[in-house]
Design a protein that fits this description.
Blueprint lengths: L5 E5 L2 E2 L6 E2 L13 E6 L7 E6 L4 E7 L2 E6 L4 E6 L4 E5 L4 E5 L6 E6 L8 E2 L2 H11 L1
């Protein structure tokens, strides 16, 4: 069951003495077509981001700078991932609650999303999420 929460995907890393380069191509490195990209930065110490689930939209989360942790749960199983390599991303499946915390100073979180923004796709209350998951089984 935990495998359905999310998984780390290593992205191609081209090492060069002038600076490394990593690329993420849709339907190749990222297993979906990307419709939206956004990034979170300047997160104050001790603050938490996320705190929601998506009914349809999968996301691919990358720490392009610094580090942070992502905790995923499906209401039963829980996994925590430390993201701190810009050549790795975390694939987050649908119907998975996520929280992002422990942001280092200067951390930048890039999210590649499968769908355009749609407020109706979000579940923002954890108790509502647990009811939604219970009804979908």
């Amino acid at each position: 069951m935990q495998d359905n929460l999310g998984r780390i995907i290593n992205l191609p890393k081209m090492v060069d003495p002038r600076g490394n380069l990593t690329v993420a191509e849709q339907l190749k490195d990222v297993p979906f077509s990307m419709s939206r990209a956004y990034w979170v930065y300047d997160v104050p110490s001790g603050e938490c981001r996320g705190g929601h689930a998506h009914k349809h939209c999968r996301e691919f989360i990358v720490a392009v700078s610094g580090s942070f942790t992502v905790t995923l749960t499906n209401g039963q199983a829980q996994r925590t991932f430390m993201l701190n390599h810009p050549y790795q991303g975390l694939l987050v499946n649908t119907d998975v609650w996520r929280t992002l915390d422990d942001f280092s100073s200067g951390a930048v979180c890039l999210v590649l999303a499968e769908d355009p923004f749609d407020e109706d796709d979000y579940i923002r209350d954890y108790q509502d999420y647990l009811k939604y998951i219970a009804c979908s089984k």
